[in-house]
Amino acid sequence: MVVVGAGVAGLTAAYELRKAGRQVVVLEAADRVGGRTATLRRDGFVIDTGAERVSERGYGATWALLSDLGIDRWELPRIGRRVGVWRAGRVRPGLTHPGGLLTGAGLSARARLDLLGVLRGGHDFDRPEAVGTETVAGFATRHHPDLLDYLCRPVAAGLCGWDAARSAAGPFFGLLAAIGPSSVWRTHRDGMDVLARALADRLDVRLSFPVDEVIAGTRSARVFSGQEEVRARSVVLAVPAPVVRTVYANPPGNEIPFLEASTYVPMVAAHLMLHRRPESRVYLVVVPEAASRTLAAIRYDHLKHPNRAPAGRGLVTLVAHPSVAGRLLGASDGEVADVLLTAAEEFAPGLRAATRAAVVHRFRDGMPEATPRAVALRAAFAARAGGVVDYAGDWVGVMPCSEAAVRSGRRVAERLLAVPRKEPV
């Protein structure tokens, strides 16, 4: 068996297949594992390329996998800081925290009541289509304006890279309900790639092995990389849906509509290595569009966990707003850092002067966009029988998070293991 993609979804699928005694190889185009959950270590800084957090609730598949790998809970300490939203010239802490319903967290009293009603709406992580296919913006506009302007829109942009007018409400609120309040969020002590590296250590992973084409046959599939060909009884494409459409030459006709609807948004961020360690009441600030359409979020990584930066130094990540992320994909590292730093000065004065170096990350296929059409097609896609070529990734469940990636990896492994073995032809 071949798994294409060494992100969390692909590695989970390969791990479950290997545990069941199947021979499996993982092919990864990059020179490291983890995909969007990779970690860069430079000059004592531990730079997470994404904004991973592991909730104490709603992440059952992740915790089960961590336990199976022997990764103890103490290795994932609580973040211990809250999330805030910028409003009227200052950070209002308490967003996504129970205390925020009392203190305000940037929301009016009426908006907080509306939020309580929304969160009690029975949003289902595994069935995001259950609440319909309305967009986040369309859903929120039925409530107090603060709910859209100072919660839904900035959180969607800062955490998912979403335009609230394009992405569906079901996945958004299903994700918020699953991850729970920020008071129960944890992070990997040694970087967000810990899970991926632990899985890869138990597998045959071939790095710097880009796949150009996959062709499915009746009982086997052919995988091409340059002049090399690999033949396998089954292939799992654990890559973003747009990449699937590029490399998979002959997908079944009934799968194409969902594959085409599963679009992605780009994500661009600048990780600033600072010569001082700034303090903040919150570890993450989301920025509403009323304040900036350049900067979506500021993350104080050294407050997320102290070992993200050497003693006395700081690590801060600036996340580009969805409206500029596409343009910044083609910009130089210096331009990206300059654009985001210029915008950030209003919210974190002195940040530019404190910056000694910057690392820029760009993900063309940053996060599943969870369009209303993808949500509408998800259930039928999930119910299909599968075939010689199958899929894993958070996009399969239309939920942009690592828990969805782990669940999809386990499910595709279960589906493949349920198929009687046949000799490839």
From TrEMBL:
Which residues are listed as membrane-spanning? none
Q: Name one GO molecular function term.
A: oxidoreductase activity
The cross-references to InterPro entries, in alphabetical order and at most eight, read:
Amino_oxidase, FAD/NAD-bd_sf, Zeta_carotene_desat/Oxidored
Report domain Amine oxidase positions. 8-417
One Pfam entry name: Amino_oxidase
Q: What is this protein called?
A: Oxygen-dependent protoporphyrinogen oxidase
Give the source species: Saccharothrix australiensis
